[in-house]
Fold:
Amino acid sequence: MLEACVFATVLFGFFGIILKKSLVMKIVSMDVMSTGVIAYYVLIASRDGVFTPIASVGQTAYADPVPQAVILTAIVIGFSIQALMLVGVMKLSRDNPTLESDVIEKNNTL
Structure:
């Protein structure tokens, strides 16, 4: 069931990127898709019977900390990419009265 929810999140983000005309909505859709991908990795990395990698007495089976580090890195990189795209949209909004991608393309080709 969780796999279906994660897959639906990725699909919603993907179709949002394709179908939405506003650049801000495309950025939001990309963030939704990124959240789905990160949730998929978390879903794969989670296992029953293993403990967090914190040293304690009596625990022998620890979870691998590498997937957690990879996910944290993906979150940070995704946030920085999103910030860069929003700066690009702000610069585009200075020259164009709208943020619709097809209108911006028409204005720039004339």
Notes: The chain has a mean pLDDT of 86.
